[in-house]
Design goal:
Length: 126
């Protein structure tokens, strides 16, 4: 337990950076920034960090991800990251959603909230 508490410093640093900065980027870019820059830098500075750090492991759990899937969110890693950004980030999420899966998931998630409004700004069709 003490080891885990020590590693929480680096884990929270990376998770906070993910929530703050990576929401508007593609999965490939997120992966590059996390793996090639941030995680490497944290390890080089000898900040304690969980081996094989994974954002979804810290910021969500299997039950929450399963609920998202039952509400229509795909369970691939990108969709799980987007679910985390939608539910945990303090800013409005940017959902690039050509198949409208995230829109349907968000509608289902907020079905009981009378104050909820969903604004679709732009729809592109080919």
């Amino acid at each position: 337990l003490k080891d885990r508490r020590v590693r929480l410093v680096g884990d929270c640093l990376i998770a906070a950076a993910f929530l703050s900065y990576l929401g508007a980027f593609t999965f490939q870019f997120r992966t590059h920034i996390m793996d090639e820059l941030w995680l490497t830098d944290v390890r080089d500075r000898e900040i304690p960090l969980t081996d094989n750090f994974n954002v979804p492991t810290l910021l969500s759990d299997e039950v929450e991800i399963a609920k998202w899937a039952s509400d229509g969110l795909p369970s691939d890693e990108l969709s799980v990251q987007n679910g985390i950004l939608t539910t945990q980030a303090s800013r409005f999420p940017l959902c690039i959603d050509p198949q409208m899966q995230a829109v349907q998931w968000i509608k289902r998630m907020h079905a009981g909230n009378s104050r909820f409004e969903l604004h679709q700004c732009l729809t592109l069709t080919s």
